[in-house]
Amino acid sequence: MQISALKENFNNENRVALTPDTIKLFQRLGLEVLIEDGAGNNSGYPNDLYEANGAKIASRDQCLKASICLCVKIPNDNDLQQLNENTVLIGILNPYENKKYFNTLNENKIISCCMELIPRISRAQSMDVLSSQANLAGYRSVIDAAEQFGKAFPMMMTAAGRVNPAKVMVLGVGVAGLQAIATAKRLGAVVSATDVRSATKEQVESLGGKFIMVEDEESSNAETEGGYAKEMSEEYKQKQAKLIAETIAKQDIVICTALIPGKKAPVLISQEMVESMASGSVVVDLAVEAGGNCPLSKEGEVVDHRGVKIVGYANVPGRVAKDASALYAKNIFNFLSLIINKDDKKINFNWEDEIVNAVTLTHEGKLRLEQFN
Hints:
The protein is of the alpha/beta class. It has two domains: 2-117 and 321-367, Rossmann fold (3-Layer(aba) Sandwich), CATH 3.40.50; 138-314, NAD(P)-binding Rossmann-like Domain (Rossmann fold, 3-Layer(aba) Sandwich). Helix content is 30%, strand content 18%. An eight-stranded mixed β-sheet has the order 3-2-1-4-5-6-16-17. A seven-stranded mixed β-sheet has the order 11-10-9-12-13-15-14. A two-stranded antiparallel ribbon has the order 7-8. The relative contact order is 0.14.
């Protein structure tokens, strides 16, 4: 069987689904590895690195004919039409936003697997794309904030006087939020964080941050079985907004990471809150592609509102493309190891496996996941 990785066609997508150091891993599964010409250029992996590790450089048409086709984002309809029946398409397919492709996937009997739907269970940690990519997004968000911030992060004692440390607040303590806290602390900032899930308090404090939250009966049940934050009631949101408003005015930098899978991102920072911050402060909105945690953020732009910069970079993991690609390729390999039989090297979807069940969107011309009907 052949496995291929496509070159991404989206302007801000610098990642690639297969890296040179994973080629031999895929070959152990009995796969011939194809990579589209130039697919790794934007992430720092030129063609010669792939060839040196045993991959074949191929055209897009050749890659689309492989038994297993890897991508970061879903290819366009024209590409999907070229896939063979029973081709296994694996990527971050974003089924919540890409329902327009369901008919093509089903009509062509393409087996599509959404890596972002990997369940958050211990056995699936090595396949968890959302975690691997969010980790880098959290790190990069602080680096981007530091770039826009006109002052130093750590406290410095000099002969000319003291430089006070930056005050950083992180909204949303998932994987990205925790990495943002850790990165800001490493740079010497004073860090606080808030989340609707009380279970995150210990995690924040273990990284040296101060935890701030609205504690009531609703907050004790604010986490889904998958470990994500639930959408909260309007009453809770009002209490939360008041707490954030009181805290945010004292902050230099705010990192927003709050997302609810399949839904618009909750608005956590209002225009009034931004205007309460000192000139020179920075807001980084990692949720900008899902509508944003701040209504002033604009996707792909840095907005200056009364001296406060609101950073709305899209696809933040793609801003650390080399590492993001390397982690993503390993996530895919670990998932493929589940569906390729080690003895006969053939593809086998075991529907009794909860990981396989959770990520397989279409199979044999049918939509398998009820939540997308």
